[in-house]
Amino acid sequence: MANTLPDLDQLDNGALKALAIELQMELRQQRETAAQQEAELAALEAEFAAQREKLAEQSEELRTRSDQIEHPRAHLKNFKGALQADAYAGFHHLYEGGAIYEVACWAHTRRKFYEIHTAHPSPTTTAALDRIGALHGIEEQIRGKPVDFRREVRQSRARP
Questions:
Q1: Cystine design at 84: which of 66, 103, 148, 154 (Cβ 3.0–4.6 Å)?
Q2: pLDDT at 38 over 90
Q3: Burial class (CB in 10 A: 0-12, 13-18, 19+), 68
Q4: Maximum pairwise Cα distance, the chain
Q5: Is the pTM of this model over 0.90?
Q6: Total structural domains within the chain
Q7: pLDDT at residue 78 above 60?
Q8: Is residue 141 pLDDT above 90, yes or no?
């Protein structure tokens, strides 16, 4: 439709009717375009909200990781020696300098081998579980005994 309207006094009923139909079609098209744009805007707003939520979660995760690193670092700043941390992720950075070394927990190691063995049994997982079980058996026998005795038994019986 042209940008300028014709002089309405010059139009007969047929021309007026045609003009009205043309205007209705143009209005319908504009409404459809507006509806499409509103739908696109709503989709963009939903995507933006989802990304904002994801960023907030990532930010919180980073804050948590930072706390996990900084708290143990501050708490153990003067400590040197063996640390049994039960695979706590917040302690991994402490082992980097060499002043602190990890004393691993066989229960956690066994659990990982058990999970793998349950999903995909193999001779390797079977052997690992058997060996860890043997270590637990030794520990049961020496629990509560003097330190030197436990060390001697471990050194003599706990080797592969």
A1: 103
A2: yes
A3: middle
A4: 118
A5: no
A6: 1
A7: yes
A8: yes
Q: Is the pLDDT of residue 79 over 60?
A: yes
Q: CA-CA distance, 39 to 37, in Å (whole number)?
A: 5
Q: Is 71 among the domain residues?
A: yes
**Length of the chain as a residue count:** 160
What secondary structure, in 3-state letters, does the chain show? CCCCCCCHHHCCHHHHHHHHHHHHHHHHHHHHHHHHHHHHHHHHHHHHHHHHHHHHHHHHHHHHHHHHHHHHHHHCCCCCEEECCCCCHHHHHHHCCCCEEECCCHHHHHHHHHHHHHHCCCHHHHHHHHHHHHHHHHHHHHCCCCHHHHHHHHHHHCCC
Higher pLDDT, 152 or 3: 152
pLDDT the model gives residue 144 = 96
Q: Is 156 inside any structural domain?
A: no
- Distance from C-alpha of 84 to C-alpha of 120, rounded to nearest angstrom: 29
Q: How many alpha carbons fall within 13 Å on the CB side of residue 37?
A: 6
Containing structural domain, residue 61: 8-77
Please choose, from the candidates 29, 16, 23, the residue with its C-alpha nearest in 3D space to the C-alpha of residue 1.
23
